[in-house]
């Protein structure tokens, strides 16, 4: 979506050169998403090291004052230590020069936020002490503290413009990785691959190319579906999103049309105007049904009740 929008902002002169450049940028942005995945995994190790520093300070103070020594559970969290020692992660971070050292304030804030939670207190005070408890602590910490953290978002935006757009999917990959870790695998535990297979690697490139090459055809479908509404007054981001959605419907026969529509309605809600979700939903529904009835699209759509119409949904 971002690359298609950028393509039009740069103009359509020297179209083939622009296409080559935008595909190269696509490859770079996909690689950056995988960098973010590794970087967010590294945050777990960075916070654990921070916990170790706090624990050392508290231990020294407790010894001086003759008090009970603090718990070492978080600082010695088995899952976090296994992740920090992971060969694949360590090599990636070294090769790409990724570290949280320059964002120590963020690491410190995340640590302090975690130790103030109820689930952390339950973890520290529990007599149960095993790998599963350690891994579950970090699953909860990542899901509730890290995955929705504006301080982290701000830091990531400064490092890479694409990273915030990748956060939601990358966070889901990190949580999936936490769940699949097993202590028996030690430092050889496999992380998620950048791409599952050749088809995944090719998907984004094909979608981008189809969107841009067939732009006039897809924009005509949008104009016809808008009926009496002035096509030129549509939010440009809505047009871009619908154009990509049509490209996905036309290019990938295995993806149900309704799945495509739902995905792009969600994108419209997040990236365009407050009214865009309902409008894009109505327009794409109308376009899909028209393409199916004219045999240009060999897919199916669920039956629509008699009172529904794209124009009514848009007016609502």
Content-based structural category:
mainly alpha
Mean pLDDT: 89
Query: How many distinct domains?
Result: 2
Overall shape = elongated
**What ranges have pLDDT less than 50 throughout 5 or more consecutive residues?**
309-316
- The overall strand count is 0
- Terminal residue distance: 26 Å
User: Oligomeric status of the shown chains?
Assistant: single chain
Number of DSSP helices?
Answer: 15
Helix content class: 55-70%
Largest beta-sheet characterization: none
- Beta-strand portion reads under 5%
Layout of SSEs?
Blueprint: H1 2-9, H2 15-65, H3 78-84, H4 87-95, H5 104-115, H6 118-125, H7 131-146, H8 150-159, H9 163-180, H10 198-213, H11 215-225, H12 236-251, H13 257-271, H14 276-293, H15 310-315
Helix pairs in contact: 2-3, 2-5, 2-9, 2-10, 7-9, 10-12, 11-12, 12-13, 12-14, 13-14
What report would you give on this structure?
The structure is a single chain. With 316 residues, this protein is an all-alpha fold. The chain is built from 15 helices and no strands. The chain has 2 domains: 2-188, no CATH class; 214-315, N-utilizing Substance Protein B Homolog, Chain A, CATH 1.10.940. The protein is 70% helix and 0% strand. Helix 2 (15-65) packs across helix 3 (78-84). 30% of the residues are buried.
